[in-house]
Amino acid sequence: MAQAWSLVGRATQLRGISSALRTSRGALLIGDAGVGKTSLARTAAHDAPRSTAVRWVTATASCRALPLGAFAEFVEPGGTDPLQMVRHIAGSLASGDGTGRVLLVIDDAHLLDDQSAFVVHQLAAQGLASLIVVARAGEPLPEAVEVLWRDGLIDRIEVPALTMADTGAVLDTVLGDLVADDTVRRLFHLSGGNSLYLRHLVEDERAAGRLARHDDVWLWRGTPAVSSGLRDLVAARIGDLAEPVRTAADVLALCDPIGLADLTGLVDLGTVEVAEERGLVRAETDAAGRQVVRLAHPLYGEVLRAGMGELRARRLRGQIAEAMDATDDRSSMVRAVLSLDADVALDPLELERAAATAMRMLDLPLASGLARAALEAGGGFGAHMLLGNALSWLDDGVAADVQMRAAQDTASDPVEKVRAAFQRVANLFYTLRRPDDARHVLDAARAGVPEGIPPVLDSLDAAILVHLGEPKRAVDVAASALAAPFLPDPAVVLASFGLVGGLGLLGRADEIGDSADRAYAAGAESSDAAVPCFGLAYFHLIALRLAGYVSGAAALAETRSRIGADIPGPAMFYAEVLRGHAARAVGDLPTSIRCFDEARAALGDTDTSGFAAHGSLGLADALALVGRVQDAQAALVEADRRWPPACAFLEPERLLVRARVASAEGSTTEAVALAVEAADLAASRHEHGYEVAALHAAVCLGDTSVVDRLLRRANDVQGPRAPATAAHAAALAAHDGDGLQDASVRLEEIGDRVAAVDAAAQASVAFARQGLADRSRRCASRAMRLSGACGGVRTPALAELTQPVPLTGREREIVLLAARGLTNQQIADRLTCSVRTVEGHLYRAGAKLGTRRRSELAEALAIDVR
Question: Which end of the chain is more exposed for a tag (fewer CB within 10 A), N or C?
Answer without folding.
Answer: N
